[in-house]
Predict the structure.
Amino acid sequence: MIDTMRTKGFAFAVKHWGIRSAFVLVLATSFAQQATTAPPQSTPTPIPPDRVKESYEIYSQLLPGREIEWGNVPRSFWLLEDTTKALPLDSSCKTAGMLNPHQDVHPPEPRQADFGEVLADYDAHCHDRYQLDATEFHLKLPVHLLDEDAQNRYRRHVFGYLPPKNNIMQAPPTPDEFKGAAGLHSFTAVYFNRAHTLAMTEIGMYCGGLCGNWRWVVLERSNDSWKILPWATASVIS
């Protein structure tokens, strides 16, 4: 499906997925050049204590799920960026980013007040980056966190990868350092309403210059677990 969407473009995605998808063509510029022009980012801090438990519950639920590509493909461990994604310090929370929840998440009318609290939390923390702790995830497979240098090494090795047409779920070939991985995953912080019964995060997975998927996910607490709500109307596919 993903390969077909790439070749048939935006109209096909809208017709067959019912969501607005943006298709990203990554320019062949060096990672060194990107680093010198990177906008200012906040310094990572630990996840605040009142968010730790629920944030890792949500991360642990989403990683092996089906919200983005490659959640359930064979792997020996999870490869994850070691800090959460955030907007640059000079960016507007309400308008910046490839995906912005102010435009790309649409709750039904009766839930708009609840979700307004989530957006307010996002606006208060959209620039905050949090340091992740691999021991806090609750998964069958171990989590390997990559710092910025290791992330760049991974990206350089898989930059030109495109899955074969007869097996679009095939993982890219990787060097020994990353053997057993299947995509580099990322999260933003988790943003909550005041009661912590409604939550939102962006999940992403990069697997090559033309291989990747990012989207917002909204969840609602249901007893002791989190139920995914179909409110996000956009995704980015490269």
In short: DSSP finds six helices and eleven strands in the chain. Confidence is low (pLDDT under 50) at residues 1-33.
